[in-house]
Amino acid sequence: MAITALNSAATGLRALSTQIDVVANNLANAETTAFKRSRVNFEDLMYLTLKEPGATNSAGDISPAGTFVGLGVRISNTQLDLEQGSLRSTNRPLDVGIEGQGFLKVKIMDSVGDGYGYTRNGNFIINNNGDLVLGMGDGYRLVPPINIPKDATEISISQTGLIEYTKAGGGTKTTAGQLRMNQFVNPQGLKLLGGSIYIETPASGESIESVPSENGSGLVLQGYLEESNVDPVKELVQLIKTQRSFELNSQSIQTADQALQTIGNLRRF
Asked: For 123, which DSSP code?
């Protein structure tokens, strides 16, 4: 059975190594705008059945329990923690923070998914054509597109996503466009691309588009950005626990090795 212990401990080391990678990535993105931490879910593997529960012995008695030996552990999946991050005031008119559920839709490369991505990062800037784009990567354009002329002043964004501006020298407000909020039946099924961009998958379902504050979607707050929802203290505690578990699995391998060595030495006697 020492061989089984070796294999079980080895699966534990592999799974815990992945856990360390995920925690390290969470800590590395503690200051990334709108970053959502991930957690690792484990599941046990198959079991060797040495005795069936309810088996009858030679005396005719029924065993109240069986005997099972597990074969280790594996990673079931990594799960996004979509808890709201803190909203940080920036006093910048084109910054948008989402309070509540939902994602903003942006245009990404046509070769990725269906060419559209979703993000909670509302760090917008205006490109050379006057379009609102994300101030990251190659400047992903907002969908539906919103254009603001170069002579626009006093840009305002309402909590329901209506964007208005005043032209220089004029006092009348002009509507530039309407921000749309996108939700998913299963946001855990979104695929992570990096850069706080997600794309839909068959697991997430198709996006459900609505105006902010409608159908359970969140509000947008002008002059704010959502911070990462990583709690460094919790992550460090998880890292310490994972490290200790890793050490214990290493000890299991050493113990199994010593048992095999003892068995191997029996031939000398």
From this structure: B
